[in-house]
User: Fold these one by one.
Assistant:
Number 1:
Amino acid sequence: MLKGVYLGKKADGSNLYRASITHNLKHISLGSFPDEKTAHRAYLEAARLFKSKRPFEKLIESHSEERHLLSFEKWVSLINMRDNRMYIKTPIYLEKRSFLYFLDKNTHYRFDVDDLFYYSNHKIMKRGSHLFVADYGMQVSILSRYGIKSYAVMGRDYRFANGDPYDLRYANIEIINKYFGVFKESKNGTDIYVTKIHVNGDIIVGKYKSEAEAAVAYNRAADILKQKGVKKNFTSNFVEELSEIEYASLFNRVRISDKIRNY
């Protein structure tokens, strides 16, 4: 067999040619190929990457699905191994206090190094503008790791402090509105929380001094409307900073507008 090539078998008994390479005592699988020569070419491609003196940005830009046998994800992993002596199976490139996760050669996101273990074991996928990973058989939004709910709207409910939506480090993400139906407003330097609920248009439930009180008010308004026969599945707020007793007490005494009570 040519260097870097190992013979395997498919389920139907036909031959399968696997390519692999060893670098810094790490044995790395490069994938399976239809014939020995193609598998060997993949091995040579990986060997050239490890020997290259080009900076990683240039190597990332140079990848071509038409010209290269190695997938883009494998390409990034090998470059990271070359530069940082660590092999990571997902397309991650390590930096000093953060890392880059590449979706393609033109798109990457920056994360805190604290998230390295998670994204080393979870592949990021994208559908439209939605980023998610498969976790225990479920599609989990990347933004949920920051406490951002699925209904949240960028610019209204959360924002990026430096204006860069590709910078997903924790310090760059600011939660503006934590709860459904609750909107923070500032007046004369003081924050107030306005609760709105949508039936046939938005109805203002009330204005409150705390975010938790405003969230409970939304739940109370939804409960009143359901009792009055409104057939709608209102999203319920889970107010994590309140104990069960505190929640029940606030739920019973929170002020609700007459528009809701008399609906």
Note: Residues 100 and 110 are 5 Å apart (CA to CA).
Number 2:
Amino acid sequence: MRIEPEIARVSLVMCGHFNPLIFTHSWFGWNGLLSKEIVDNANMQIAHPQITKFNADWLNLQVEPERFMINTTQAPYIRLQDLAVRIFRNHLPHTPLNALGINREVHFTVKKFEERDRLGRSLAPVEPWGEWGKKLEPDGEHGGMTSLTMRQINPDGRPPDGQINVTVEPSNRVGEGHLGIYVRINDHYSIEDAESHTATSEIVKLLERNFDESLQPADKIIDHLMSLTEK
């Protein structure tokens, strides 16, 4: 990428029906999904019928009754794919799954406010807003784009009902409130017959086939957005 992100994260989100209490760090250790060293040093935040959360070395996990999420800020990101495939193919193949999200997020900082404003004005020009738009002066004091999401529906070669959602916002994590940019790319997959007995295996296959193929174009989108900060 032309601007090195200060924070970069990849997450996997699976929708379905889960028992959060299963997904403790100890369960991962007992089943050989994480090493003993990682499990022994894990930070177990909560284990409850409605939510389980822990972080362990490179991994962050949160499970709710209808949502399973793992994420990491540490490459290689392929470890997320490997872990999820092993969980839902080898250990919990009967857990009902019906949708998958492969998400890429970055926070990066530009050198001057004008560069961040250049990106905002490129994506959301003020001219169509008429007289009111003229009041949105590019000085960081009078406003401008706060959040923009673009959506591609049914990308070619994908199962129906898939989406790619790209969100761009000022970052609240980096850039001291006026130099940071946040980009999130949500690559959503779902299957036609979510009630089918093969739904879980189909979701796992989608994850195997599309993990790398999702992250590579996501990084190209991010790199293009970074280019819009340049003159």
Note: The longest helix spans residues 199-227.
